[in-house]
Amino acid sequence: MVLTAVEIAASVRAGKLDPVQVTEEALERIAAADGVVGAFRRVRAEEAVKEAAEVAARPDLASLPLAGVPVAVKDVTEIAGEYASHGSLAGPSSPAAADGVIAARLRAAGAVLVGLTRVPELCIWPMSDTPDGIARNPWDPTYASGGSSGGSAAAVAAGLVPLAHGSDGMGSVRLPAAMCGLVGLKPGADLLSEGGWFGMSVHGPLATTVADTALLLSVLAGEPSLAVVEPPASVRIGTSTTVPLLRTPVPKELTAAVSTAAGLLAAQGHAVTPAAPRYPATMVLGMTARWLAGPAAQAGGFDFAALQKRTRAHVRAGRLAERAGLIRERTRDRWISRAKEFFSEYDVLLTPTLSHWPVKAGRWHERGWLTNVLPSTRLAGFTGQWNFAGYPAITVPAGRSAVSGLPTSVQLVARPGEEGLLLGLAAQLEQANPWPRTARS
Protein backbone atom coordinates (compact mmCIF):
# COMPACT_ATOMS: atom_id res chain seq x y z
CA MET A 1 0.00 0.00 0.00
CA VAL A 2 1.44 3.36 -1.04
CA LEU A 3 1.58 5.94 1.74
CA THR A 4 -0.68 8.98 1.57
CA ALA A 5 0.79 12.30 0.50
CA VAL A 6 0.32 13.63 4.02
CA GLU A 7 2.29 10.68 5.42
CA ILE A 8 5.08 10.93 2.84
CA ALA A 9 5.54 14.67 3.29
CA ALA A 10 5.57 14.43 7.08
CA SER A 11 8.15 11.62 7.03
CA VAL A 12 10.38 13.46 4.53
CA ARG A 13 10.22 16.65 6.56
CA ALA A 14 11.18 14.67 9.68
CA GLY A 15 14.12 13.01 7.90
CA LYS A 16 12.55 9.54 8.13
CA LEU A 17 12.10 9.12 4.37
CA ASP A 18 14.45 9.98 1.50
CA PRO A 19 12.72 11.72 -1.44
CA VAL A 20 14.90 9.80 -3.89
CA GLN A 21 13.83 6.47 -2.43
CA VAL A 22 10.17 7.54 -2.46
CA THR A 23 10.47 8.58 -6.10
CA GLU A 24 12.28 5.43 -7.16
CA GLU A 25 9.59 3.29 -5.53
CA ALA A 26 6.90 5.22 -7.40
CA LEU A 27 8.77 4.73 -10.66
CA GLU A 28 9.05 1.00 -9.93
CA ARG A 29 5.28 0.80 -9.43
CA ILE A 30 4.71 2.67 -12.68
CA ALA A 31 7.09 0.38 -14.58
CA ALA A 32 5.35 -2.69 -13.17
CA ALA A 33 1.72 -1.66 -13.72
CA ASP A 34 1.39 1.07 -16.31
CA GLY A 35 1.64 -1.34 -19.21
CA VAL A 36 -1.85 -2.43 -18.19
CA VAL A 37 -3.22 0.77 -16.66
CA GLY A 38 -2.00 3.14 -19.38
CA ALA A 39 -2.06 6.17 -17.09
CA PHE A 40 1.01 7.98 -18.42
CA ARG A 41 1.79 9.56 -21.76
CA ARG A 42 5.30 10.37 -20.54
CA VAL A 43 7.16 9.09 -17.47
CA ARG A 44 9.94 11.44 -16.35
CA ALA A 45 12.08 8.73 -14.78
CA GLU A 46 15.57 10.24 -14.94
CA GLU A 47 14.35 13.77 -14.42
CA ALA A 48 12.21 12.82 -11.43
CA VAL A 49 15.07 11.09 -9.61
CA LYS A 50 17.29 14.12 -10.17
CA GLU A 51 14.57 16.46 -8.95
CA ALA A 52 13.97 14.30 -5.87
CA ALA A 53 17.64 14.66 -4.97
CA GLU A 54 17.30 18.41 -5.36
CA VAL A 55 14.31 18.39 -3.01
CA ALA A 56 16.31 16.40 -0.44
CA ALA A 57 19.02 19.06 -0.53
CA ARG A 58 16.72 22.06 -0.13
CA PRO A 59 17.40 24.15 2.96
CA ASP A 60 13.64 24.67 3.45
CA LEU A 61 12.86 20.93 3.33
CA ALA A 62 11.36 20.91 6.83
CA SER A 63 8.68 23.40 5.80
CA LEU A 64 7.61 22.01 2.41
CA PRO A 65 3.93 20.93 2.32
CA LEU A 66 4.54 18.31 -0.41
CA ALA A 67 8.11 17.41 0.57
CA GLY A 68 9.22 14.53 -1.67
CA VAL A 69 5.69 13.55 -2.74
CA PRO A 70 5.51 11.99 -6.24
CA VAL A 71 2.78 13.77 -8.19
CA ALA A 72 1.40 13.03 -11.66
CA VAL A 73 0.30 16.00 -13.75
CA LYS A 74 -2.26 16.06 -16.52
CA ASP A 75 -0.85 16.37 -20.04
CA VAL A 76 -2.02 19.97 -20.34
CA THR A 77 0.65 21.28 -17.96
CA GLU A 78 3.61 23.44 -18.91
CA ILE A 79 6.76 21.85 -17.46
CA ALA A 80 10.20 23.18 -18.31
CA GLY A 81 11.84 20.83 -20.81
CA GLU A 82 8.57 19.02 -21.62
CA TYR A 83 5.70 19.69 -23.99
CA ALA A 84 2.01 19.30 -23.21
CA SER A 85 0.37 17.31 -25.99
CA HIS A 86 -3.25 17.79 -24.91
CA GLY A 87 -3.72 14.22 -26.12
CA SER A 88 -2.97 15.12 -29.73
CA LEU A 89 -0.39 14.40 -32.40
CA ALA A 90 -1.48 17.55 -34.23
CA GLY A 91 -0.16 20.18 -31.85
CA PRO A 92 3.21 21.81 -31.25
CA SER A 93 5.83 19.61 -29.60
CA SER A 94 8.47 22.16 -28.64
CA PRO A 95 9.54 21.83 -24.98
CA ALA A 96 8.42 24.61 -22.65
CA ALA A 97 11.17 27.02 -21.67
CA ALA A 98 9.79 27.41 -18.14
CA ASP A 99 7.27 25.91 -15.74
CA GLY A 100 3.71 27.13 -15.89
CA VAL A 101 1.82 28.14 -12.75
CA ILE A 102 0.76 24.61 -11.80
CA ALA A 103 4.20 23.02 -12.15
CA ALA A 104 5.84 25.98 -10.45
CA ARG A 105 3.56 25.75 -7.42
CA LEU A 106 4.02 22.00 -7.15
CA ARG A 107 7.80 22.30 -7.30
CA ALA A 108 7.83 25.18 -4.81
CA ALA A 109 5.91 22.92 -2.41
CA GLY A 110 8.52 20.14 -2.76
CA ALA A 111 6.59 17.80 -5.06
CA VAL A 112 8.40 15.57 -7.57
CA LEU A 113 6.74 15.56 -11.01
CA VAL A 114 6.98 11.95 -12.13
CA GLY A 115 5.09 12.18 -15.39
CA LEU A 116 2.38 13.53 -17.68
CA THR A 117 -0.89 11.60 -17.66
CA ARG A 118 -2.96 10.51 -20.63
CA VAL A 119 -5.87 12.63 -21.87
CA PRO A 120 -8.22 12.46 -24.87
CA GLU A 121 -7.49 14.85 -27.72
CA LEU A 122 -8.14 18.45 -26.61
CA CYS A 123 -9.63 17.01 -23.38
CA ILE A 124 -13.08 16.75 -24.92
CA TRP A 125 -14.21 13.29 -23.84
CA PRO A 126 -14.83 11.25 -20.64
CA MET A 127 -12.59 8.45 -21.90
CA SER A 128 -8.82 8.88 -22.14
CA ASP A 129 -7.26 6.96 -25.01
CA THR A 130 -4.69 8.04 -27.58
CA PRO A 131 -3.01 6.28 -30.50
CA ASP A 132 -0.26 5.04 -28.16
CA GLY A 133 -2.33 3.88 -25.21
CA ILE A 134 -5.60 3.54 -23.29
CA ALA A 135 -6.12 4.75 -19.72
CA ARG A 136 -7.95 1.90 -18.01
CA ASN A 137 -9.90 1.66 -14.76
CA PRO A 138 -7.69 -0.09 -12.18
CA TRP A 139 -10.76 -1.69 -10.59
CA ASP A 140 -11.54 -3.46 -13.86
CA PRO A 141 -9.24 -2.73 -16.83
CA THR A 142 -11.97 -3.63 -19.30
CA TYR A 143 -13.57 -0.27 -18.39
CA ALA A 144 -12.32 3.23 -19.22
CA SER A 145 -10.89 5.28 -16.35
CA GLY A 146 -12.87 8.33 -17.46
CA GLY A 147 -11.77 11.65 -18.80
CA SER A 148 -10.47 13.95 -19.54
CA SER A 149 -8.30 13.53 -16.43
CA GLY A 150 -8.52 9.77 -16.92
CA GLY A 151 -4.79 9.12 -16.83
CA SER A 152 -4.47 11.05 -13.58
CA ALA A 153 -7.32 9.07 -12.00
CA ALA A 154 -5.88 5.75 -13.18
CA ALA A 155 -2.44 6.62 -11.78
CA VAL A 156 -3.83 7.37 -8.31
CA ALA A 157 -6.39 4.55 -8.18
CA ALA A 158 -3.74 2.02 -9.19
CA GLY A 159 -1.51 3.20 -6.34
CA LEU A 160 1.22 4.41 -8.69
CA VAL A 161 1.28 7.87 -7.08
CA PRO A 162 -0.63 9.28 -4.10
CA LEU A 163 -1.71 12.48 -5.86
CA ALA A 164 -2.49 13.76 -9.33
CA HIS A 165 -3.37 17.07 -10.90
CA GLY A 166 -6.35 17.31 -13.22
CA SER A 167 -8.55 19.88 -14.89
CA ASP A 168 -12.33 19.98 -15.16
CA GLY A 169 -14.35 21.64 -17.92
CA MET A 170 -17.54 19.54 -17.86
CA GLY A 171 -16.71 17.03 -15.12
CA SER A 172 -13.19 16.05 -16.16
CA VAL A 173 -11.90 15.68 -12.57
CA ARG A 174 -15.11 14.42 -10.95
CA LEU A 175 -16.11 11.85 -13.57
CA PRO A 176 -12.81 9.89 -13.59
CA ALA A 177 -12.58 10.24 -9.80
CA ALA A 178 -16.04 8.68 -9.52
CA MET A 179 -15.22 5.89 -11.97
CA CYS A 180 -11.96 5.06 -10.17
CA GLY A 181 -13.15 5.40 -6.55
CA LEU A 182 -11.28 8.62 -5.70
CA VAL A 183 -11.92 11.99 -4.17
CA GLY A 184 -11.95 14.62 -6.91
CA LEU A 185 -12.55 18.32 -6.36
CA LYS A 186 -13.57 20.94 -8.93
CA PRO A 187 -12.91 24.30 -7.29
CA GLY A 188 -15.03 27.33 -7.99
CA ALA A 189 -14.12 29.40 -11.04
CA ASP A 190 -12.87 32.17 -8.74
CA LEU A 191 -10.19 29.93 -7.20
CA LEU A 192 -8.39 27.92 -9.89
CA SER A 193 -9.72 28.86 -13.31
CA GLU A 194 -7.43 27.96 -16.21
CA GLY A 195 -9.33 30.25 -18.56
CA GLY A 196 -10.30 27.56 -21.06
CA TRP A 197 -13.70 26.73 -22.48
CA PHE A 198 -14.95 30.30 -21.99
CA GLY A 199 -14.35 30.19 -18.25
CA MET A 200 -15.70 26.68 -17.55
CA SER A 201 -12.38 24.86 -17.05
CA VAL A 202 -10.55 24.82 -13.70
CA HIS A 203 -7.60 22.92 -12.23
CA GLY A 204 -8.25 20.43 -9.42
CA PRO A 205 -6.85 17.57 -7.33
CA LEU A 206 -7.43 13.80 -7.42
CA ALA A 207 -6.51 11.76 -4.35
CA THR A 208 -7.41 8.73 -2.27
CA THR A 209 -8.21 10.64 0.94
CA VAL A 210 -9.88 13.92 1.81
CA ALA A 211 -6.77 15.13 3.65
CA ASP A 212 -4.62 14.55 0.57
CA THR A 213 -7.21 16.30 -1.60
CA ALA A 214 -7.15 19.34 0.67
CA LEU A 215 -3.36 19.37 0.73
CA LEU A 216 -3.02 19.34 -3.05
CA LEU A 217 -5.79 21.91 -3.46
CA SER A 218 -4.00 24.24 -1.06
CA VAL A 219 -0.81 24.00 -3.10
CA LEU A 220 -2.48 24.37 -6.50
CA ALA A 221 -4.44 27.39 -5.29
CA GLY A 222 -1.58 28.94 -3.34
CA GLU A 223 -3.84 29.04 -0.25
CA PRO A 224 -2.23 27.10 2.66
CA SER A 225 -5.35 27.44 4.81
CA LEU A 226 -7.25 25.11 2.47
CA ALA A 227 -5.12 22.19 3.70
CA VAL A 228 -6.86 22.32 7.09
CA VAL A 229 -10.11 20.32 7.01
CA GLU A 230 -12.53 21.50 9.67
CA PRO A 231 -15.70 19.67 10.83
CA PRO A 232 -18.59 21.70 9.41
CA ALA A 233 -21.44 23.15 11.42
CA SER A 234 -24.90 21.77 10.72
CA VAL A 235 -25.92 22.69 7.17
CA ARG A 236 -29.00 22.35 4.95
CA ILE A 237 -28.53 19.72 2.25
CA GLY A 238 -30.86 19.18 -0.70
CA THR A 239 -30.70 15.80 -2.44
CA SER A 240 -31.62 14.95 -6.01
CA THR A 241 -31.15 11.89 -8.20
CA THR A 242 -32.96 13.23 -11.28
CA VAL A 243 -30.79 14.24 -14.24
CA PRO A 244 -31.38 17.98 -14.75
CA LEU A 245 -33.86 18.69 -17.57
CA LEU A 246 -33.14 15.48 -19.49
CA ARG A 247 -34.54 13.19 -16.76
CA THR A 248 -32.81 10.16 -18.26
CA PRO A 249 -32.86 7.02 -16.08
CA VAL A 250 -30.00 6.63 -13.59
CA PRO A 251 -28.87 3.12 -12.53
CA LYS A 252 -30.25 2.15 -9.12
CA GLU A 253 -26.86 1.56 -7.50
CA LEU A 254 -25.82 5.11 -8.40
CA THR A 255 -28.94 6.64 -6.89
CA ALA A 256 -28.68 4.35 -3.85
CA ALA A 257 -25.30 5.92 -3.12
CA VAL A 258 -27.06 9.25 -2.60
CA SER A 259 -29.49 7.69 -0.12
CA THR A 260 -26.58 6.16 1.79
CA ALA A 261 -24.66 9.44 1.90
CA ALA A 262 -27.78 11.37 2.88
CA GLY A 263 -28.34 9.04 5.82
CA LEU A 264 -24.74 9.36 6.97
CA LEU A 265 -24.84 13.14 6.77
CA ALA A 266 -28.18 13.30 8.59
CA ALA A 267 -26.63 11.21 11.36
CA GLN A 268 -23.97 13.94 11.64
CA GLY A 269 -26.68 16.48 12.42
CA HIS A 270 -27.23 17.99 8.99
CA ALA A 271 -30.73 18.79 7.72
CA VAL A 272 -31.19 16.62 4.63
CA THR A 273 -34.29 16.85 2.41
CA PRO A 274 -35.11 16.15 -1.26
CA ALA A 275 -34.65 19.33 -3.32
CA ALA A 276 -33.11 20.54 -6.57
CA PRO A 277 -32.51 23.86 -8.34
CA ARG A 278 -34.95 25.12 -10.96
CA TYR A 279 -32.75 24.40 -13.95
CA PRO A 280 -33.52 26.78 -16.86
CA ALA A 281 -34.14 25.14 -20.22
CA THR A 282 -31.41 27.30 -21.78
CA MET A 283 -28.75 25.87 -19.44
CA VAL A 284 -28.03 22.80 -21.56
CA LEU A 285 -27.64 24.89 -24.72
CA GLY A 286 -25.36 27.34 -22.95
CA MET A 287 -22.92 24.83 -21.52
CA THR A 288 -22.98 22.66 -24.64
CA ALA A 289 -22.09 25.66 -26.78
CA ARG A 290 -19.03 26.27 -24.60
CA TRP A 291 -18.09 22.56 -24.66
CA LEU A 292 -18.10 22.79 -28.46
CA ALA A 293 -16.55 26.22 -28.92
CA GLY A 294 -13.87 25.91 -26.23
CA PRO A 295 -11.89 23.14 -27.97
CA ALA A 296 -12.55 24.84 -31.31
CA ALA A 297 -10.76 27.95 -30.06
CA GLN A 298 -7.87 25.85 -28.73
CA ALA A 299 -7.57 23.98 -32.03
CA GLY A 300 -6.44 27.18 -33.71
CA GLY A 301 -2.89 26.29 -32.72
CA PHE A 302 -3.12 22.73 -34.07
CA ASP A 303 -2.84 21.19 -37.54
CA PHE A 304 -6.52 20.73 -38.34
CA ALA A 305 -5.94 17.99 -40.92
CA ALA A 306 -3.93 15.95 -38.39
CA LEU A 307 -6.64 16.05 -35.71
CA GLN A 308 -8.68 12.92 -35.09
CA LYS A 309 -11.87 12.53 -37.10
CA ARG A 310 -14.12 13.02 -34.06
CA THR A 311 -12.18 16.15 -33.07
CA ARG A 312 -12.48 17.72 -36.50
CA ALA A 313 -16.25 17.28 -36.32
CA HIS A 314 -16.29 18.75 -32.83
CA VAL A 315 -14.21 21.75 -33.90
CA ARG A 316 -16.47 22.41 -36.88
CA ALA A 317 -19.54 22.31 -34.63
CA GLY A 318 -17.82 24.61 -32.15
CA ARG A 319 -16.99 27.19 -34.80
CA LEU A 320 -20.61 27.12 -35.95
CA ALA A 321 -21.80 27.60 -32.37
CA GLU A 322 -19.60 30.63 -31.88
CA ARG A 323 -20.52 32.17 -35.24
CA ALA A 324 -24.19 31.66 -34.35
CA GLY A 325 -23.70 33.72 -31.20
CA LEU A 326 -24.50 30.87 -28.81
CA ILE A 327 -21.84 31.93 -26.28
CA ARG A 328 -24.16 34.26 -24.41
CA GLU A 329 -23.47 35.67 -20.98
CA ARG A 330 -27.16 36.15 -20.34
CA THR A 331 -27.65 32.39 -20.61
CA ARG A 332 -25.05 31.84 -17.89
CA ASP A 333 -26.49 34.70 -15.82
CA ARG A 334 -29.96 33.16 -15.95
CA TRP A 335 -28.60 29.84 -14.66
CA ILE A 336 -26.53 31.50 -11.93
CA SER A 337 -29.63 33.37 -10.79
CA ARG A 338 -31.48 30.05 -10.43
CA ALA A 339 -28.49 28.50 -8.63
CA LYS A 340 -28.39 31.41 -6.18
CA GLU A 341 -32.11 30.92 -5.58
CA PHE A 342 -31.51 27.30 -4.58
CA PHE A 343 -28.50 28.11 -2.41
CA SER A 344 -30.43 30.77 -0.54
CA GLU A 345 -32.47 27.92 0.96
CA TYR A 346 -29.83 25.17 0.99
CA ASP A 347 -26.11 25.17 1.69
CA VAL A 348 -25.26 22.04 -0.32
CA LEU A 349 -26.69 19.97 -3.15
CA LEU A 350 -26.11 16.19 -3.03
CA THR A 351 -26.43 14.15 -6.26
CA PRO A 352 -24.88 11.12 -7.92
CA THR A 353 -21.67 12.00 -9.74
CA LEU A 354 -22.31 9.69 -12.68
CA SER A 355 -25.64 9.45 -14.46
CA HIS A 356 -24.59 6.14 -16.02
CA TRP A 357 -21.88 3.51 -15.61
CA PRO A 358 -18.49 4.01 -17.32
CA VAL A 359 -18.01 2.87 -20.90
CA LYS A 360 -15.74 0.01 -21.84
CA ALA A 361 -12.09 0.85 -22.48
CA GLY A 362 -11.17 0.97 -26.12
CA ARG A 363 -9.86 3.01 -29.01
CA TRP A 364 -12.61 5.60 -28.86
CA HIS A 365 -10.39 8.08 -30.73
CA GLU A 366 -10.81 5.97 -33.89
CA ARG A 367 -14.60 6.23 -33.78
CA GLY A 368 -16.89 8.92 -35.11
CA TRP A 369 -18.13 12.01 -33.32
CA LEU A 370 -21.68 10.83 -32.59
CA THR A 371 -20.37 7.47 -31.40
CA ASN A 372 -18.39 9.40 -28.77
CA VAL A 373 -21.05 12.02 -27.98
CA LEU A 374 -23.89 9.67 -27.08
CA PRO A 375 -22.20 7.71 -24.25
CA SER A 376 -20.42 10.87 -23.08
CA THR A 377 -23.60 12.84 -22.55
CA ARG A 378 -25.34 9.84 -21.01
CA LEU A 379 -22.90 9.57 -18.10
CA ALA A 380 -22.18 13.28 -17.46
CA GLY A 381 -25.68 14.51 -16.62
CA PHE A 382 -24.87 15.87 -13.15
CA THR A 383 -21.54 17.63 -13.64
CA GLY A 384 -21.24 20.21 -16.44
CA GLN A 385 -23.85 22.62 -15.11
CA TRP A 386 -21.59 23.45 -12.16
CA ASN A 387 -18.73 24.37 -14.48
CA PHE A 388 -21.18 26.62 -16.29
CA ALA A 389 -22.20 28.26 -13.00
CA GLY A 390 -18.62 28.34 -11.64
CA TYR A 391 -19.61 26.64 -8.36
CA PRO A 392 -17.29 24.23 -6.50
CA ALA A 393 -18.17 20.53 -6.44
CA ILE A 394 -16.55 17.41 -4.98
CA THR A 395 -16.84 13.70 -5.76
CA VAL A 396 -16.66 11.31 -2.80
CA PRO A 397 -16.58 7.49 -3.00
CA ALA A 398 -19.68 5.79 -1.58
CA GLY A 399 -19.14 2.05 -2.10
CA ARG A 400 -18.91 -0.52 -4.86
CA SER A 401 -21.42 -2.06 -7.24
CA ALA A 402 -22.59 -5.51 -6.18
CA VAL A 403 -22.91 -6.37 -9.87
CA SER A 404 -19.77 -4.98 -11.56
CA GLY A 405 -17.51 -4.25 -8.60
CA LEU A 406 -16.97 -0.72 -9.91
CA PRO A 407 -16.96 2.16 -7.42
CA THR A 408 -20.04 4.26 -6.69
CA SER A 409 -19.89 7.87 -5.60
CA VAL A 410 -21.76 11.05 -4.79
CA GLN A 411 -21.28 14.69 -5.72
CA LEU A 412 -21.57 17.60 -3.28
CA VAL A 413 -21.99 21.14 -4.63
CA ALA A 414 -21.75 24.40 -2.66
CA ARG A 415 -21.63 28.16 -3.15
CA PRO A 416 -18.52 29.85 -4.56
CA GLY A 417 -15.81 30.03 -1.91
CA GLU A 418 -17.13 27.02 0.02
CA GLU A 419 -14.46 24.47 -0.94
CA GLY A 420 -13.68 24.13 2.78
CA LEU A 421 -17.27 23.16 3.53
CA LEU A 422 -17.22 20.51 0.82
CA LEU A 423 -13.98 19.06 2.19
CA GLY A 424 -15.42 19.01 5.71
CA LEU A 425 -18.53 17.14 4.60
CA ALA A 426 -16.43 14.74 2.54
CA ALA A 427 -14.30 14.05 5.61
CA GLN A 428 -17.43 13.19 7.58
CA LEU A 429 -18.47 10.73 4.86
CA GLU A 430 -14.96 9.29 4.82
CA GLN A 431 -15.00 8.72 8.58
CA ALA A 432 -18.50 7.21 8.59
CA ASN A 433 -18.03 5.09 5.47
CA PRO A 434 -14.31 4.41 4.79
CA TRP A 435 -13.41 3.32 1.29
CA PRO A 436 -10.47 1.27 -0.01
CA ARG A 437 -7.84 3.79 -1.03
CA THR A 438 -6.74 2.04 -4.20
CA ALA A 439 -7.74 -0.86 -6.39
CA ARG A 440 -4.72 -2.73 -5.00
CA SER A 441 -5.86 -2.33 -1.36
TrEMBL record:
Similarity field: Belongs to the amidase family.
InterPro entries referenced in this protein's UniProt entry, alphabetically: Amidase (IPR000120), Amidase_dom (IPR023631), AS_sf (IPR036928)
Pfam families: Amidase
Gene3D superfamilies reported for this sequence: Amidase signature (AS) domain
Domain Amidase: 22-423
Name by which UniProt lists this protein: Amidase
Coiled-coil segments: none
Species of provenance: Amycolatopsis vancoresmycina DSM 44592
Classification via PANTHER family: GLUTAMYL-TRNA(GLN) AMIDOTRANSFERASE SUBUNIT A, MITOCHONDRIAL (PTHR11895:SF7), TRANSAMIDASE (PTHR11895)
GO molecular function, one term: catalytic activity
